[in-house]
């Protein structure tokens, strides 16, 4: 399986006349089979770091390297089985049912058939079976979020990045999601979740704290 | 980020210290009173601003176009009535036939004639004078047609003369012999009969007049437009056997008044030259008022004169108003319907505004703000764009009428009405947008997730349209489809309402059925490629939007197909009736025998028309003997007839060329082969004059070109008829049929033996202006269809824009999962293309059905063959189809471009 390492990552944005240092020399490593929680206040650079890790942003400075079977590949070239993600905005396709949203990664690769059983299982695990035929706008935000996580888990990705995956959940459903993410890590995935959920910190193998564009090991004090 | 969040950050009411944190960038907005703040706030949603601006423009364009179009049509109706006539027909003219008392001198007459230009000058108009003597005291002292003339030897001439003076008349004749002297110019044939030459003196009405020159008879020349209004002075339209009085041209007024003083009559006309090509009805009314005053000033009570003002212009104005009335019936309801459609679009823009500002209005609604204050907020925010859109739309309608309308000459009252219509459109449109925005904003906040569609969306309201269409059809069954009022054809409004209602109702009903199939299509799509899968799911997920789009494509295609086909068919039918009547575009007739030669072959074909009789077996008299019937016999030139004569495939079962070829076939038992219409096949005897010609009808046709009476017709090869010497006494006219310009044909006819030709054109068959109401009614409907198409495009863009945010975030994630750019573009093309193609097919089907039901009832003149002909305007149909597909492709490209331009990191960080 694969993990990844970022070294001295820097990213600066310009907002009007102001320069914002979103990442200011970030060093981090997430190994295969590890569940890492990334915590920090809003605006500390968590989402920017995730965007950079999945290839939607590029670092101004520093290096990002994936390991194992993904070694040497830039993040934007990685497919869903290699790198799956749950963005803050979820990114569900509004014209597909919740079940079809979960199945979409499989359908766009080699057909939905082989993944249907796993999709059904994930929907069942997340308490979504009865909503499978609904469209995203006919589901609550929490239900949509669980669909987004199920979609990320469908193809058992080598790396999973999730931005606030439990933010719209009640405790019960949040625990279910954390179980699933921990299970993915247990199966060998490298899982990094940006979260404010203190329960998630406890479930993580490691906690990284982010503040003013810098990462440090351990929970925030 | 939502507007509320942005405003809050920048110092909105939710964050009093926001200005300090986010900077004072928009804090000043909140210190403004609501009515000042709202218009500025509206600008924060540019897409909504553009939507309201564009839809308001469409609405204003729809409602303002009707009064402008009607005024434009009235002006064009006036101009097109005058266009085929001589230029002078449209010129305001005062005039009189003066019969001065005995003893009135030439100088007194001249003084009287001078009143006419003075009267026009008092109206501020420059004018030209024409003087004529058509009536004079005869040798016995009684008034007679023409002036008695003695030749230079004092011998009275049998043919009288008329006298004409116009300042530059001599510049428009061919001089045979001339001089600079004052006096009279004689036509050549008259000079020959009088044995008169320049320098001689003839006596006209007892007054000696010097012969100043000789010119070629006008009927022997291509006389041109200068003489157009005066052909009665040298042609006898009734018969070319009896010539009119010879036309003597006076070199000056004194010469004419000297003759008039002796002959005791003269005509005076005073013309004001105007450009009839830019005349509007209101300007014509102005001129007619001036004409009336000038006429009264020139011809006073007690004058020995009969007023002869120009009545043609007044009649044309009345007819133009009648044509406009004919248009008003169908056009006003159609404009209202178009306006209502556009209103729906404006209301949709209000809904779009509510979507765009969903977070803010949801928050307000959650805090208890009702739909009325929300509607007020929407009205204040959208008022400025609506106003700008209305102005743009009004200007667009004005430009459209100027560019593609019947004429660009509008009455001031029409512009005023159009402005009022624009103001009404602004008020009603803004109110609708605001009300819908308020209701939608409130509804969005209150509607539970996953709720089933509300019951009104399940009711098939379109059946009401179909019922209304059925009712119109039932009424139409007992009424004429075309009403002719004072010779002006008008389209019955029911003929417009019935198919439009039917098309609209059927389109919606069919669409409702088709969209019911979408869930099944969605299930099928799971087995298809990703592109098709995504496309089908998008269509199925937004069923109301899919149905609306489908209707939006179907309706304009169907209406355009229907109206363009009817316009084209009615034009084709009128052309065909004219072509059948004349034989070709133009027919020149001469009683003298015309022999075909290379020159006539170059311009057309020579036809000898005989009034004859046919005797054949089927008609029997009381004694059982073969009966007789009057027939028209056309002896045609086999080499040129088929190439010139008007023909349509529906006239016979075989082409004209083959029919003509059969005229050259072998004689059967001494009988000439002929083609006939109205006679059975078999043996017939034709009686031409005193000569009996046995013929064999080898083919019959439904319609023959050159048909001018209801009698049967026979076509025979001219070169196989007996020598014309044997046919002496037969009632014959030689004709030259041509599809080219008149002057070369006239020249060719004169050189082939013809004399004083009478020229028959379309204007002699129909006053084509009388049918303008038909073509303009359907033309306006075509414009409406194009307009609905524009609305559809506007709706499509709104649809794409409204869904772009969710579509783009889904696209970004799908790309991450392995969806290629080309597969996504293909899915958009399949999605929009399938709607376009289905709409095209449905529209074509509905148009064909409506045309099939209606077109036979559009007979502008049932007495003249042929019956209504169907003409499919292939270029218009192909263009509409191509445009529809092009718009779908462009929309797909637009949506793809929007997706490509999205920054994934930004898109996926926005609120879900």
Major sheet strand order of chain A: 5-6-7-3-8-9
Distance between the termini of chain B: 10 Å
Strand content of chain A: 25-35%
How far apart lie the N and C ends of chain A? 33 Å
Write down the secondary-structure element order of chain A: EEEHEEHHHEHEHEE
- Helix content percent band of chain A: 25-40%
Q: Give a count of the beta strands of chain B, DSSP E runs of length 2 or more.
A: 24
Helix count from the secondary structure assignment of chain A:
6
Number of helices of chain B: 29
Helical fraction of chain B = 40-55%
Mean pLDDT of chain A: 90
- The shape of chain A is globular
The value of Rg of chain A in angstroms is 17 Å
Give a short account of the largest sheet of chain A: 6 strands, mixed
Inertia-based shape of chain B: globular
Q: What does the average pLDDT of chain B come to? A: 84
Decide which structural class fits the backbone of chain B.
Answer: alpha+beta
Low-confidence segments of chain A, ≥5 residues, pLDDT <50? none
What is the quaternary state of this protein?
heterodimer
- As residue ranges, the low-confidence spans of chain B are 1-24
Please state the CA-atom Rg of chain B, rounded to the nearest Å. 38 Å
Word description of this protein:
The complex is a heterodimer of chains A (221) and B (912). With 221 residues, chain A is α/β, with parallel strands linked by helices. Chain A has six helices and nine strands; from the N terminus they run βββαββαααβαβαββ. The longest helix of chain A has 16 residues. Chain A is globular, with a radius of gyration of 17 Å. In chain B, 53% of the residues lie in helices and 15% in strands. Chain B is globular and about 115 Å long. Chain B is built from 29 helices and 24 strands. In chain B, the strands form four sheets. In chain B, strands 1, 2, 5, 6, 7, 8, 9, 10, 11, 12 and 13 form an eleven-stranded mixed beta sheet that branches. A six-stranded mixed beta barrel of chain B has the order 17-18-22-19-21-20. In chain B, strands 3-4 form a two-stranded antiparallel sheet. By secondary structure, chain B is α+β, with helices and mostly antiparallel strands.
